[in-house]
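Board work, copied verbatim: Ribose-5-phosphate isomerase A
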Amino acid sequence: MNKQEQDELKKEAAIKAAGMVKSGMILGVGTGSTVAFFIDALGKRRKEDGLKLKAMVTTSSRSKKQLESWGFKVGKLSDIDHVDLTIDGSDRVADNFDGIKGGGGALTLEKNVAINSNKIIWIVDESKLVHRLSGFPLPVEVLPISCEQNFRRFQAEGLKPQWRMDNGKRFVTHYGNYIIDLAVDPIPVPHGLADYLDHTVGVVEHGLFLGMCDEVIIAHSNGKIED
Ligand code: 5RP
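↓ predict structure ↓
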């Protein structure tokens, strides 16, 4: 599948998800190229169908800017007590709907919005589907103060760490932290790794989203859209 074909699929999944948003909802909006199509489709619904949300939060300044360009008012997660529905992309989705996220570096806010959401829908093209979590390095956001120790410990554990880079420098997240991508592939015991990372000092968040997603909208190259 070339990029243009993949973008078409992302767009189809995004349009379907935009049709599932109802007026009066508190909506969470994720980050990434698939979500960018979703925001455009949602913006059109606002303009053409008069879609009126109760509140909206998002997971990156990129998405915020795009939502505001469509006239949406974007609030802060700390100002609301729950999110009715979150629409986000994912880098990999396993058969049981476990996922790897954070390819765009927004994993910390994405997980915080997710954990406060009553329902989560991921929108993906078929290339993201895997039987077991694999095929994508696992992003781990770490505090700069102890990042070298974290890197060495991951190396010693055989987790194949790599610094995420951006124009020759370490990638810096929204919160001023770094990302270490773990090239462990496949992830043999996702819950075990999540538990280890959850208990590692200096790790802010990781991209294992286990048991969080309720529904996945998948656009297939044979024209089928599945959810
Ligand atoms: C960003 C994410 C994205 O949802 C994920 O990377 C999918 O992105 P895309 O839709 O561009 O493939 O987790 O941190």
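The mean pLDDT is 96.
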